[in-house]
Amino acid sequence: MSYTYSLPTTGALSFVEFFKDVSAYSSEISDATAQRGRIRTVLKGLKKEAQEERDYRHIVNTIEDYLPYLVSVINCLQSGELKLKKNIETSWRSTLSDHIIHTGSNAPRITCPDIYYELLFVLMTYGYACSMQSNDILKTIQEGSSTASAQYNKAADSLNTAASVFNYVAYEVIPKWRQPPENRPVETIKELPVALSKMALADAQYIAINKALLAGNVSKSLVAKLYIGVGGQYEMAYGLVSSISGAQEVSTDLKKYIYDGAQFYKAMGKKYLALDANDNQKMGEAVGFLRECKADLRSIQHSSLSKPHLRKSGVASRAFKEEEAVSELLQKFTMINDTVTYQDIPSRQDLQRIIPNGRGVLQMKQYQLPSPRFGPTREEEQSVNYARSGAYY
């Protein structure tokens, strides 16, 4: 399961108010405003719904309907076919700022200039929704069913899309936003979408690991390396969000989630190193890695208990369940080592030296904006390709 994002809301916007003359595209500009209004309505309605009732697929589809119009407006501005009579300003709520703890309902709506501020937040919201949609898919999977494998693929693909969108925001959109104001939301600082991209791709890899484990066709050594790889991605994400400082800082809740995730996946790597050691008659190593694993899992839970003002991390819940299984294994392996194998248990430093480097199995997609609905390049397109074309819904 991925981080539970609180999706932002936005203020009203009428595109026609910002342009000198829209006669060439009067109907299309009205449609762009209408599509943008749909997003505002859907996001506002989401806040009133219980978490389990939210339809993130509907949000994804609504954003995909709007994006070709937004791309068209950007292209028309770049080509000069539309000229501004005043700077475009849009307002979005910052839901990943430090003062947000629970639902994000008290987040300030921050107004900033430039069409790229609009594109940036629309795409960030798209990434959040894709990530949350993956969570919804995972909840519906029935283990052992004929559709389970396809559902795992679908959930991982949704996270991969989120990762590619966050990455696109960081490297393609933020650099084009010239002279951002001092009150810019934390979401618009490059390091944050890069961190979210790494986390989303790591979560997709975690799903791939689960699928492989259920199929039973993967070695414990490889699983350990894959978990270590996921943990490494989370560690890099934590380093990125921790580097952001100033007027806007990243939500403590999100930072804690990422930190706990790094510890959890490294612990899972140690669990599978222990299982691999057992398979290779290295019972001392097996006991040592399980002890380290249990200590890491316990640390995650204690960290959550020590900060009751923060929303309880979903990672802490997983750590609690996993600790029970690890404790049983540790008791079993310790008994075997104490009565049969009598192997020395390596120190923490010795164990650390034999932990392998992490590995990855998934490659991030390359996100591209959809084809424009109108304006420049429209005639060059064979047909209007909507963002949702080819989707499996």
From TrEMBL:
Pfam families per the UniProt record, alphabetical: BRO1 (PF03097)
Q: Which domain of life is it from?
A: Eukaryota
Q: Which residues cross the membrane?
A: none
GO terms (BP aspect): cellular response to pH
Which PROSITE patterns does its entry note? BRO1 (PS51180)
The record's family statement is:
Belongs to the palC family.
Name of the protein: pH-response regulator protein palC
**Species assigned in the record:** Phascolomyces articulosus
Q: What is the lineage of its organism?
A: Eukaryota, Fungi, Fungi incertae sedis, Mucoromycota, Mucoromycotina
